[in-house]
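QA checklist item 7 of 12: single-chain prediction sanity check.
[x] sequence parsed
[x] length recorded as 556
[x] structure emitted
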Amino acid sequence: MTPKIAIIGSGPTGIYTLKGLVGKSEPLSITVFESESDPGKGTPYHPALNDRAMLSNIASIELPPVCETLMQWLLRQTDEELQRFGVERASIDEREFYPRVVLGEFLYAQFLQLLNIGRSNGHTIEVKASHRVADIELRPTDIRLSVKAPDGESLEFAFDHVVMATGHDFPETTEIKPGYYVSPWPAPVLKSIKPCKVGILGTSLSGIDALITVATAHGSFLLDEQGDLQYHALPDTEGLHVTMMSRKGVLPEADFYGEIPYRPLQFCTETAIQNLIATRRHDLLNAVFELFKAELVFCDPEYASHIGLSQLTVETIAKAYFHDRETTPPFAWAARNLAEAEANKVRKYTVEWRYAILRMHEVIALAIPHLNEKDLERFHTYFKTVFVDDYATVPHASIRRLLALHRAGKLDILALGNESDIDNKAVERGAVVHSNGNSLQFYAFIDATGQHTLSARDIPFPTLKKQGVVLKATTTTASSMVSVDDQFVRTGGIDLDDKFRPIFHDNLTNQLYCGSIAFLLHKLPFVQGITSARDIGYTVSQAILETIATPALEVA
């Protein structure tokens, strides 16, 4: 009997999973369910959910090829198509950044190519657009899906393997009360915001996305005679002023030049981390931090001396890392950092400390699932932010837009500090922000803090939740780290094996794969973006093919 596989979601994770399945294996029956009407684009890149001015923060050279690279696909487009995308042919480059909707078009084209490849290789592939999976039930030998069809009819399906590739989890209703938005998506909703005092929680790319969406509804960005970007407000928009805010009140840095593929690390290597996992469980995070320090000293001794690295701990590294930025006016820092990043890109010059931290984050991630309860909390509270800030740099164009808005008197930055309160109940519209002894009222307020970590209780499938097979991830307690009989606590996320399958002991099929980003962040904190989607898709597709080749493994 032909193995039946369901992929829930046709964004990047679903696409890379499909890529891994459609090669020349035995014939498969694959069904792709997509809640949107046009599959293959992915929520973060869908034209109905994103403003055309929103930029992605992954360059072509970093984007894993599907059937071709992003640059190859762009170069074969007609001039008319490129004009529609807002891309100049002369500017196409492997290190260039493009609007989110352009990545959506690229992914859609790759999705169609995969469908053709799969069918030519003998697979049966069906794509069900506008079909929302409402429930999942594990059974002894298969998995039942309940699906809402476009006409509202409830449909039932049974599959041997099911992949949850639902990617980002965005709320269905964005404006939960007048002027208060819990997400910057879908972006067209933000276009309705009038010229008023707008607050945006979050200064990362998601916050910048929200800012640019609002700003382009009331003006435009144009180059002046000197080639500098300026913001020109439309008439009668004098009331527009945006305050972006975060705990530290710092802006992300501009994308920095680094060699790709990565240069090998010298001290904080995968082998060294694996050795620590095997031999240093009682103080794993501290041991990992020593490798981090050794690598940073080796790569950039001047920077290590500047921040006093030898005296730093897991608890104090972030304070030292952010110190210069926090003590410099944010737009002064942004202008200086942009000039440096642009010059380095032209010279192909690498700032070694930034590059070292970038290369280390994926290696250090290997240790996170092995941390005890106390160290896992220490990592998330103190250490993680250094890596997230380093790899979450933004396109140079994004920084230019921020500076243009600030020069136009339309933008400022607020550092909330550790004690702040956002109250959306005391006002009819928007919210009031209480911080540092001051209160600021915003007539529109947008929470743009990005994807939040979800746990077992957030699973949207009632039967699956009722079955009790999706549990919070387990972490060893600190007190049991050196004992023979380990004791475990459940700390968050979802308890998955190395193939992304829920871990349970019931006599049910174990061929459900959770590739949904929000449920993985607890133990895989750097699982973000298209490169992670590629990794998840590859792991899941290979696990399915291996299981099909050895049917005895299908039941837990």
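[x] summary fact logged: The CA atoms of residues 276 and 284 lie 7 Å apart.
[ ] second reviewer sign-off
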